[in-house]
Amino acid sequence: MAKTAVYPGSFDPITNGHLDLIDRGRRLFDRVIVAVVRNPSKQPLFSAEERVALIREVYKGKDRITVDAFDGLLVHYCQRMGADAIVRGVRAVSDFEYEFQMALMNRRLSNSQLETVFMMPNETYTYVSSGLVKEIFALGGEVEGLVPDAVLEALRQRLKGR
Ligand code: PNS
Hints:
Elements: E1 4-9, H1 16-28, E2 31-37, H2 48-58, E3 65-70, H3 74-81, E4 85-89, H4 93-109, E5 115-119, H5 130-138, H6 149-159
Parallel strand pairs: 1-2, 1-4, 2-3, 4-5
Bound molecules: 4'-phosphopantetheine.
Residues 8-10, 37, 40, 73-74, 102, 105-106 line the site of 4'-phosphopantetheine (PNS).
């Protein structure tokens, strides 16, 4: 039976580290749904629609990848989409505590119907995060190679004249 994974996140904006994870997920699962949370805890730089559009642009023409936005509980979204697993990236031990807590809570909320699969991005991306990318770019630093070209352009447009 075809296996579907949901890769959820804020993706504000998507980085090359996220893309690395999506490619790994695509090797393990038949379909990967990149699910952009509509209301992240922090005020986002890009709206959910903008974040979805940027990711779709990157995966234009690629099969077995769906990009979507979701509201509410992740487990409810996964159930609606018929997902078998949640994929999350772990860059360092510091990520682990929060990820472990979420994974166990999601397991409980789904009555053990959903597994969380942790994957490590390529070590080149261990230090890359959306937050740092935004901060560095806003302060005039170079983020080329850390984000896809579409994101670089969107950052230029968004932060122009700020
Ligand atoms: O990229 P992020 O910000 O680390 O992603 C966090 C995300 C979106 C995976 C998490 O906040 C989430 O699942 N939000 C949806 C609401 C929810 O289900 N909360 C309970 C999690 S146990």
